[in-house]
Amino acid sequence: MSERLLIKNGRLLDPSSRRDEIVDVAIADGRIVGLAPHIDASGHHVVDATGALVVPGLVDMHTHAYWGGTLLGVNADKIGPLSGVTTWVDCGSCGAATFEGFFHHVIKLSRLRIIPFVNLSYIGLTQAGNLSIDVGELYDWRFADLRALRRIKAEFGSVIAGVKLRASNNACGANGPIVLPLAREAADILEVPLIIHVGTAPPRIDEVLPYLKEGDILTHIYNPSIGGCVLDERMRLRPSVREAIARGVKMDVGHGGASFSFEIAKAAIDQGLLPDAISTDIHAHNIDGVVIDLPHVMAKFMALGFSLEQVLRLTTCSPADILNRPDLGRIELGGEADLAVFHVRHDPVRLYDSLGASREAATTLECRLTLCKGQVVNTFEDGRTEGRTYS
Ligand SMILES: [Zn+2]
User: Fold this and answer.
1) CA of 108 to the centre of ligand 1 (A)
2) Cα of 125 to ligand 1 centre, how many Å?
3) What stretch of H or E contains 166?
4) Pure H helices in the chain
5) Rounded mean pLDDT of 106-127?
6) 197 C-alpha to center of ligand 1: Å?
7) How high does pLDDT run on average in the chain?
8) 22 pLDDT higher than 90
9) How far apart are the CA of 34 and the centre of ligand 1, in A?
10) Site annotated as Transition state stabilizer: where (predicted)?
11) Distance 8 CA to ligand 1 centre (A)
12) Backbone angles phi, psi at 321, to 5 degrees
C-alpha cells in the first residue's frame, strides 16, 4: 500500500496483548507504524472507526477453500473480506493427487492467507458432497498412500501445516482400524500435527483419540453423531476426551453442516471441554445454511455465554498458536497490518445449530473492513455463487 491509512477512534481489542482501548492505528507500506490515542490525520486516508471494533485478522481453523478443484470449496478471496477472516486453514480438501493444483491455482494467488492441511487420502475430498457418488475417500484404504505423501513432502513440505483424516463412517467405511495408524504415520513423516474429524462411527471416538498426541487437533468436538460424540449416552464427558485434553490435544469446533449441537456444546463445556479454536468448517453446502461465516459461529458462542474477548481469543491468537504461527492473530507495532474492523450489533438474533435447535444471541458482529498482508481486501463479483445444493 503506497497510501498511508489511518483507522481512527476504534476500540482496539487484541486478546494476545489483553489490549482493550480506544486508539488510532496508522498503517504505511503494509505495516502498523502507529498505535496511539491521537495520531495526526494529515497525509492519511482516514477510516472513521468510531464506535467500531478493531481486531486482529481472524483465523478460521477449519475451512474448505479449494474452489474449482472440489465441489465443497468456496472462494476465500471473495468471501473472506466480508467476514474479517484473513487466515484460512484448509482442512484436507486435497490429497497428494491434487495438492499441486491447489497450491498453484489457489494458495499462491490468494490475497488472503490459506494454510493447507493435506488429506491422508490420495484423492482428498474431490468426491465429497456429490451424493450420487456416495463413496468416501478412504472406502478403499489403498488411497492412504504414504509413498505419495513422501513425494509431495519433497516439494511442499514447508507449505503443508498438517495431515487431515476424516475418521467417520461416511469417509472410511469400516477401514478406521487400518487408516488411523496410517494417519499417525503420515503426520510423523511430514513432521506436522494431525487433525482428525470425528463423526458417525465407525470408528468410535474412543478408538480415535489414542492416535492424537500433544499439539494434534480433534475437530467437530460438539458433534451430536452416534459413536463420535464427546459425551456418552448419559451426557457425561468421556474419560478418553479428558485424557486427550490432559495430554495437550487441541480442541477445534469445526461447526460444519451436521457437527454442532448447542445441547452437546453446553453440556461438554460445563464438564470442562472448552474449545481451543472456534472454526466454521465452511463449505459450499453450509455457507447458505447454518454456518454462514466465522462471525456467525462466534455469535453462537456468545449466545452460550462466552464473552466477546473469549470468542476473539479463540479466533485469533489461540488458533495461531495451534498453528505455531505467533506472527498471526495479533496487532503489534511494526507488524504486518492484518486486521479487521467490525460493527458490534446489539439487536437480538436467533441462531440455529445443526439439529435445528436455537438460542438467542444478544451480540453479533458485522465486518466493515479487512486488511490482510498489509493490504485492504475487498470482495468482488465473479458470476458464481459460493453456495451449492446437494446433488
Ligand atoms: Zn471439514
Assistant:
1) 21
2) 9
3) strand 162-167
4) 76-79, 99-102, 146-156, 169-172, 176-190, 205-208, 239-246, 262-270, 294-303, 308-313, 317-322
5) 96
6) 8
7) 96
8) yes
9) 38
10) 166
11) 37
12) -70, -40
Say what the pLDDT of residue 2 is.
Answer: 55
CA of 279 to the centre of ligand 1 (A): 10
Ordered domains of the chain (ranges, CATH): 4-55+332-346+361-376 (2.30.40.10), 58-322 (3.20.20.140)
What is the distance in A from the centroid of ligand 1 to the CA of 282? Answer: 7
For residue range 164-222, what is the model confidence (pLDDT) as tens digits? Answer: 999 999 999 999 999 999 999 999 999 999 999 999 999 999 999 999 999 999 999 99
CB–CB of 176/167 below 8 Å? Answer: yes
Compute, in angstroms, the gap from residue 5 CA to the centroid of ligand 1.
36
- Expressed in angstroms and rounded, the spacing between residue 140 Cα and the centre of ligand 1 is 20
Q: How confident is the model at residue 1 (pLDDT cuts 50, 70, 90)?
A: very low
Question: Residue 200, class by beta-carbon neighbours within 10 Å (0-12 exposed, 13-18 middle, 19+ buried)?
Answer: middle
How does pLDDT run across 325-378, given as a tens digit for each residue?
999 999 999 999 999 999 999 999 999 999 999 999 999 999 999 999 999 999
pLDDT of residue 391: 55
pLDDT computed for residue 390 by the predictor: 63
Residue 283 Cα to ligand 1 midpoint, Å, equals 8
Longest dimension (CA), the chain: 66
As a whole number, mean pLDDT of residues 117-138 equals 90
Of residues 211, 288, 276, the one with CA closest to residue 244: 211
Q: Rounded to the nearest whole angstrom, what is the distance from the C-alpha of residue 259 to the centroid of ligand 1?
A: 10
Binding site as annotated, residues for Zn(2+): 62, 64, 164, 197, 220, 281
375 is written with which cell numbers?
493490504
Binding-site residue set: 62, 64, 164, 197, 220, 281
